[in-house]
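We emphasize that the prediction below concerns an isolated chain of 211 residues; any contacts that depend on oligomerization or on bound cofactors are therefore not represented. The input was used exactly as deposited, without trimming of termini.
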Amino acid sequence: MKQGVIFDMDGTLWDSAKEVAAAWNLAMRQCKYERAPLNADDMYRVMGKTMEDIARLLFSDVQGERQKEILDVCCRVENDYLREHGGMLYPKLRETLDTLRESYHLYIVSNCQSGYIEAFLDHYDLRSRIEDFQCYGDNGRPKADNIRILCERNHLDDAVYVGDIQGDYDSSMAAGVKFIHAAYGFGTIDAAVPRIETLAKLPELVPTVLG
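Result of the prediction step, given as a token string:
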């Protein structure tokens, strides 16, 4: 039986809010778009949403092509910035991935833009640990669809999604996969679900969820 562990990104594998805010401030200056500088708290409030939804929330005083132009520059600058500077990895990430991949296949599904996952993998040299990934930016599909797409593409018989917010849980249920709450992340789950307080506890919990 082929079993997979599928990870969310922000609030699950790392916290890049501070770095993303810095990158977006650079991008807004490039676009000559004036607003109060963004900080990590601004990014926490929109984490998990699609890029278009984030643009509507953060750039609400502009619409249409101008909003899209600013968003496109922000995403491009962000990917380059993160590939160079990285973010804050949650403790024991590498060791956790190495332990898990002895028994399971590892993947990522995120609502991020194209290139974001790649920047993460490249900065930390993790491509050999993650077999496949799917994101909203590549196909415009919601997270539940992308979880299903990844499971089908990789012929998984069973899988668990590891995420930190309610939307992650809802998406995993809609996709028909199991769920583990990364309780150290950015949100809470309105359901009784298996949970971890630190990433390092994941290898102990996964076998009890997947069997």
